Each structure stands twice: as structure tokens, then as C-alpha cells.
Amino acid sequence: MIPAAPRDDDELEELLSRPSPTVIDSLRRAPGDVIVLGAGGKMGPSLTTMIRRAANELGDGRAVIAVSRFSSDPAATRLTDAGVTVVRADLSNRNALARLPDAPNVVYMAGQKFGTRDLPSLTWAVNTLVPAMVAERFAGSRLVAFSTGNVYPLSPADGAGSRETDPLTPLGEYANSCVGRERVLEHVSRTLGARIAIVRLNYAVDLRYGVLVDIAHHLVADEPVPVGMGYVNVIWQGDANAQAIRCLELAASPPFVVNVTGADKLSVRDAATRLAELLDVRVRFEGTEAADALLSDTTRARSLFGEPSVPTATLMEWVASWVAGGGTRLGKATKFEVRDGRY
Questions:
Q1: Does the N-terminal peptide bond of residue 254 adopt cis geometry, omega within 30 degrees of 0?
Q2: Which of 56, 45, 155, 49 is nearest to 109 (CA)?
Q3: Strand 204-205 relative to strand 266-267: parallel, antiparallel, unpaired?
Q4: pLDDT tens-digit map of 32-55
Q5: CA nearest neighbour of 215 among 303, 133, 334
Q6: Measured between alpha carbons, how far is 263 from 334 in angstroms, rounded to an integer?
Q7: Which residue ranges form the domains of the chain, and what is each CATH number?
């Protein structure tokens, strides 16, 4: 059954972190403590809390540890209140990394995208050097590492999207640094036998952030919606959290790789038109749809995890209701419309 739309931040956080029975069963098959590295970002708090809530249901006494610099004190407080152990650390510092507790399960979420255009060397350092250090430090653990669908080149808009076995030949410094991240993880996996699962995530939506949120705010500001990148995949962030957690038991050497996003190839034009109807505002467009787009085929994910629990149509209704009601916003654009790889 599809849950009711969240009405405020507390309800949103509860729903984003609510573990399904399949998440609880999967975590049972990955026993032991769990460390989430880079837990202070957009997805980290809700994913970590979902793990904590699932562990509480199991009642197996495992610790759940969130590691980040935690520039947001509210995020750290929310995690502590949920029963998560919070550790402030800079993952790029080898001494700090060495001092972290051992754990049989690790989720790695750190990375950099925006700002690449101005300082690409930092993006490469964050996206390649740090994950290599982490993989070596936790070579004896199961490691789920977040990547991105940006590792693929743009694919034909009339196709199903890129598959996990397709060549990684993207455009731009950010996307290529993410290929670098995957390659160093694969190297550590093959040389040290580290069990790794790589999650290529495209466009999670949590109502305060995401492609649909960007489109909705264009509409309420009476701004034209860019349609050059004519198609996208989106997924409810709670479903993305759940699928990533379930990858712990799938970690392998060489790495297991899976695309995580929604099953629908969503037309930006159609999404904007529907959101405009829900918001009762006019819609205007800018540009023309290109013949290719950043799209991922989710056949593998759906065969393993089933369909996302929140359909795209429902997600659009939730976003419209949230935006119309003046719900909070993270203030970070996805830049889904960027086609040259420059962020």
C-alpha cells in the first residue's frame, strides 16, 4: 500500500527512514555493526536512520555509526536522537580514518559534484583518493559505495537507458572522476578481495530536493522549464535508501554493480505539464528535447528488489502538495538540465 503524503519535515523524515520488511530481512543476512561514511549529506541521515530502525526491529544489539564532518548540527542531533552513534571525522585524513572503529558493514556516501568546474582537482581527490583509502581501510568488510548514473554517456532518448555492463565513457570532469572512483574500488576489490557493491544512483527525490522539486519551483516562480535534457529517471529517496541497504548482502569481489533509480523514463515536458496542473499554474518551456539523455536501465534492480514502493505519479502529487504548502527546501538544484557535464 502506498503511504500517505508527508505533511511536514517530521513526517517526511519518518517516511524516508521507514524500513520495509525486505530491508529488515536483508540486514539480518548482513550481521554486525554498520558504519555510514559521509552520513551528513542529503541522503545520509535518512539512510542511516533506516538502518538504525531496521536494527532495532531485529533486536540484535548491533551499533550503527554515522561518520561525517557534520557541517549541519541538526543532522547530527537528529541521528543521535534516533540512537545512532555520531563520529565527526574528515575521511580524507588518513589518521582519522585509521581511528574509526572496525565494522563488518560499511556504506560509503561521500563525494563531490558541484564546484567541479571551478576546482576539478579537488573533485578528483574527493572522488578517487578518498574512496581508495576507505576501501583499503575496510577491505575486510562488506562495502556499499554510492556512485552515479553520470558514469554513463548520454543514451538515445527512445531507448531503455544504460545498463550496468555498458561502457563508461561520459562527458565532463565530474562524471569521469566518478568513473575513477569505481575503478579504484574495483582495483582494491580485485587485489585485496574486498567485497564491494557499487550503487549507480540517478535522481533521488525527497520533496525538499530533486528534479521534480526543481521543476515545481520553476513553475511557481513562473520561469520556463528547460527541456533540452528531455527525459530523466527519478526515484523516491526512501526507495533509494532501501535498495542501497539491501546491497550490503550483495557485496562481492569483483564488485557487484546496480543502477538505482525509477523504472519510468519520465518526459520533462510531461512532468512539468502534470505538476502545473497540480499546482494550478501556467507552464512555459525553454529549448527543444535532444535526441539523447542521461537514462539508466533498472532491469537488474527491479529483478532483485521489485518495483519502487512510490510510483512516479504519486511522487509528483507529493511534490506538488509539498511545494504548494510552502514546505522546506534544501536550496540545492540538481542541474538535471546540464548536458555538457560541467557542474
A1: yes
A2: 45
A3: unpaired
A4: 999 999 999 999 999 999 999 999
A5: 334
A6: 19
A7: 9-204+235-262+296-305 (3.40.50.720)
